[in-house]
Amino acid sequence: MSATQSLVEPCRELLERLAEARTRTDEVFAVVRPEFLYERPIAERHRIVFYIGHLEAFDWNLLRERLFSAPVHKAEFDRLFAFGIDPVDGGLPNDQPEDWPRLAEVRDYVAHTRLAVDRGIERSLSGAAGSSGEFPASQLLHVAIEHRLMHAETLCYMLHQLPLDWKVAPSKRPELVSAAVKPSMVEIPEGKITLGIRRGGREFGWDNEFEMHVAHVPAFAIDKYMVTNGEFLEFVKAGGYEDCKHWTDGDWKWRSEQGVTQPGFWRRKDYRWRLRTMFDEIELPMNWPVYVSQAEAAAYARWAGKALPTEAQWQRAAYGTLGEEERAYPWGSELPNPARGNFNFQRWDPAPVNAAAEGESAFGVVGQIGNGWEWTSTLFGPYPGFEPFSFYRGYSADFFDGKHFVMKGGSAQTAASMLRRSFRNWFQPHYPHVYAGFRCVNN
User: Fold this and answer.
1) Model confidence over 58-116: pLDDT tens digits?
2) Is the whole-model pTM more than 0.85?
């Protein structure tokens, strides 16, 4: 294989992955009945129609001129759909449905932009060994793919909040059955763990995944399984939401002002607890992971006399071993597959926390990949040697504000490519809509 082929062939594989990612987001949008695409299910986010245009505008704005040159088709849409929002304190959007273009116009923009992007990429790959500028084509395509797949997941958070009859439910998959969960803790010995990836290597990573460094982690114990709905129910019954001693001042203020008295996905009906899934409302599954905000997770941990793990503790429990070796995944080097966990869009909803025994780590911790992101106590910040992407400077740096916490692991709606060891997710501590649970540690 020539040097040119060695650069171009991986990019052609990435083109196939981009097409697959488009199919995935198209499937997510298809869940919503068309007449409700101008709704705003979450107050802090744009209306759904924005995201239909945003995914294409992002690819176009990222790739045009960095990877290929092409004439602008609809500059006003390139600007309108360019940026999402993540307000922390106030500043909620107040636009109205009529402020947005008609759906037919948006869909025309999507179709035209996809075609222009594909043609531009093909010209680039045919001409300059996969790169026509200072940025490698493979890096830019990775960014486009994973940005889209991230939205596939966060769109699910939004659509989850829509009334059930505003959505079209796909065929049901059989429920996963497992034995009753027996909570226990696993002892993790003192040792080192690698965080991040090495700059200049062949593996793709977002800017916050660099630079690779080693952390020393004292011995600790961690929950074998994620905290379940059944366990969290004991906290609710014990008055955990009414006792300020379990909460930080800021979290208590949020809980009180927002009237938070239970997990956001729970419902109370006829004196029984129920769970709002994507397409149904069911009796609360006691052995599924509880999904809560970081504030609620931390309050539960204090109530239980424990704590949330740090990013390094979570990482060591997942990827460490008794020796010096570290695993690529908790179970070893084998690529993710359905037997290892609930991820990569296999299911719309969680599974029992003990349903993926084949996803066990070297220390015996179960289910750290998939089935719900896991909150840590680590504020999201830069690793030593951090450098922002020059073409996307705000991706991480805008959130190094002391108001976001690291999450690890992944949910049922997390794409397989983002299950890598170095991937970091983050959210505000009071955001209740994310598919995130937790497990506790004893130090």
Assistant:
1) 999 999 989 999 999 999 999 999 988 766 555 789 999 999 999 999 999 999 999 99
2) yes
Confirm whether 271 is domain-assigned.
no
Distance of CA 141 to the CA centre of its chain: 19
Write the CATH number for 394: 3.90.1580.10
Closest CA relative to residue 18, chosen from 94, 95, 121: 121
Give the pLDDT score at 83: 87
Residue 248 placed within a domain: no
Half-sphere exposure of 176 (CA within 13 A, CB side): 21
How many other C-beta atoms are found inside a 10 Å radius of the C-beta of residue 279? 16
66 and 204 in a single domain? The answer is no
- Domain membership of residue 39 as a residue range: 3-166
Task: Decide if 250 is inside a domain.
Answer: no
Question: Residues of 34-65 as b/e, b for ≥16 C-beta within 10 angstroms?
Answer: eeebbbbbbeebbbbbbbbbbbbbbbbbbbbe
Q: What pLDDT is recorded for position 131?
A: 45
pLDDT band at 2 (very low <50, low <70, confident <90, very high): very low
Interhelix angle for 103-127 vs 3-29, to 10°?
Answer: 170
Task: Please report the beta strands in 350-440, taking only residues with DSSP state E, as ranges in sequence order.
Answer: 373-379, 405-408, 425-427, 436-437
User: What is the residue-averaged pLDDT of the chain?
Assistant: 93
Domain count, the chain: 2
